[in-house]
Write a structure and sequence with these properties.
Length: 277
């Protein structure tokens, strides 16, 4: 991992977690089956993560590159504004859920989700210069955001079954299917970004003198961050079918750690190879 890229990796992880969790929470709320308390809890978590992302971004001073990885810093202020809207909208979503004002809360959630799409877009534009193009960064960030949101929301929702056993099983089943779809999307994006040549290779001060396909970090990213959580998502779907909700929640706990680790490895590889994997 490029040490100079660590603050940017943290920022990307926080942004993906906040935005993805808001998207999946809103989708679950609109579909139904989840409780108001769950929506309120998740909206609060999104607001906290969004604030941390905004705080982290506010403390950064960007130049023309991140230790050899060229960036377009002109998009950074737009990102900060977008993530601030995500944070404020999530706070309103939480308050409206607490007050029982469901339509107002959902409207705030929709507004925050749109701002989240814009945040992912401007981050992609900022990171795109060395990659093969804007779609490379955008698809990778979009897939990572969906995966982070799906695994986080499904894991938290699993805990509601531990206190309210009468809840229907299909919301957790659907969330597990969503996680599986997001991970499958990540696999497709990874294959595309590995196949297409980059426009320029970063030149960090501490150069990694090994090709990407000989770098063991790539295979850790694939094995730990994609293959392992895909297996866990399938097992979670199977356990929800027999209403073994505690087991499904435990599987999603492990999947959350694997997805987080995979995202950190992916961002590290991107900053040294310009391939968003």
């Amino acid at each position: 991992m490029n040490v100079a890229a660590l603050p940017y990796t943290l920022l990307l992880i926080l942004a993906e977690l906040a935005i993805g969790s808001l998207w999946v929470t809103l989708a679950s709320d609109l579909r139904g089956g989840v409780t108001r308390g769950f929506v309120m809890t998740m909206a609060l978590c999104v607001a906290v993560c969004g604030f941390l992302a905004y705080w982290t971004a506010s403390g950064m001073s960007l130049g023309a590159d991140v230790d050899g990885y060229r960036i377009d810093a002109s998009w950074f202020d737009d990102f900060k504004r977008a993530v601030l809207v995500v944070t404020i909208a999530s706070g309103l979503y939480m308050f409206a859920a607490f007050m029982g004002w469901d339509p107002i809360g959902r409207f705030a959630g929709i507004a925050g989700s749109i701002a989240g799409v814009l945040a992912v877009g401007v981050l992609s534009a900022m990171l795109a210069p060395p990659t093969w193009g804007f779609p490379a960064a955008f698809l990778a960030l979009l897939a990572g955001t969906l995966a982070m949101g799906a695994v986080s929301v499904s894991m938290v929702w699993g805990h509601w079954y531990l206190t309210e056993g009468a809840l229907p099983s299909w919301p957790l089943r659907d969330l597990s299917w969503g996680l599986l779809a997001a991970l499958g999307f990540q696999v497709v994006v990874l294959l595309i970004n590995l196949a297409i040549p980059v426009r320029e290779t970063p030149t960090p001060e501490s150069h990694v003198d090994v090709s990407l396909f000989l770098n063991p970090v790539l295979y850790l990213r694939v094995g730990v961050g994609l293959v392992f959580p895909i297996i866990l998502a399938v097992l979670s779907i199977k356990t929800t079918q027999i209403r073994a909700m505690q087991s499904a929640t435990g599987l999603l706990y492990i999947a959350m750690g694997a997805v987080f680790a995979g995202e950190v490895l992916a961002k590290g590889l991107m900053f040294i190879t310009a391939r968003p994997v």
